[in-house]
Specification:
This protein has about 210 residues and is an alpha/beta fold. The chain has six helices and seven strands. A hairpin with a 2-residue loop joins strand 5 (about 120) and strand 6 (about 125).
Length: about 210
């Protein structure tokens, strides 16, 4: 995988910023995970990039490095049942809010991957935010959050796959692969499927 040396350490110098990202938004099964990460301004690792641009092996190797060197970090999730109730966009935002909730220190600003977010207000405290499309390929803290969210979610899906092996989640991680959809057609849904999603393609009409 290509190394990235162009990630920015911050959006505004001298401000305590937390990068936020989610993983699993496009899946048919499993929770959506999110992470919030505050990195020291001098943090650098040549592998760090948008988690989709890093091999699974390197993501797993980066995870403990990020956890050890971050000023603060937190992982959160929203269940398939909640996703079905509030929709996947709101679930993704809620997961990021929960990750910020769990940070041991409050950041001064949130850097959000994507173009949609709900203002973070809790106990009378408002943390301003800025959205960045493809922010996980631009800012180190968002990239770090993408790595943590992705690795924790993948780990969960591998564990769930042991109980539900015919869906092959250890390989597809819940994404809508042909193999996954064929298993749904053959075996039906599990308690971990998102029933509000189109789990099977619509039948072709002739």
């Amino acid at each position: 995988m290509k190394e990235n040396t162009l990630l920015q350490s911050f959006a505004e110098a001298g401000r305590l910023e937390a990068g936020c990202d989610e993983a699993g938004r496009g899946c048919l099964a499993g929770p959506v995970f999110a992470a919030a990460v505050i990195l020291p301004p001098d943090f650098y690792h040549p592998w760090l990039n948008d988690s989709k641009q890093i091999s699974e092996k390197r993501r797993d190797q980066l995870r403990p490095i990020i956890e050890q060197e971050a000023i603060a970090w937190c992982i959160a999730e929203v269940s398939p049942e909640e996703i079905d109730t509030i929709n996947i966009l709101q679930a993704s935002i809620t997961a990021m809010h929960r990750a910020v909730d769990g940070l041991p220190i409050y950041p001064e600003h949130l850097l959000i991957d994507g173009n949609r977010f709900r203002p973070y207000i809790k106990d009378g405290r408002h943390i301003p935010h800025t959205c960045f499309v493809k922010g996980d390929a631009r800012f180190a803290s968002i990239a770090a959050a993408s790595v943590l969210a992705k690795t924790y979610r993948d780990e969960r899906m591998r564990i769930l796959s042991q109980e539900w092996p015919h869906y092959h989640w250890e390989k597809n991680k819940g994404y809508p692969t042909q193999e996954h959809r064929l298993a749904i057609a053959q075996h039906g849904t599990s308690p971990h499927h998102r029933l509000s999603f189109q789990l099977l393609p619509e039948a072709t009409l002739f």
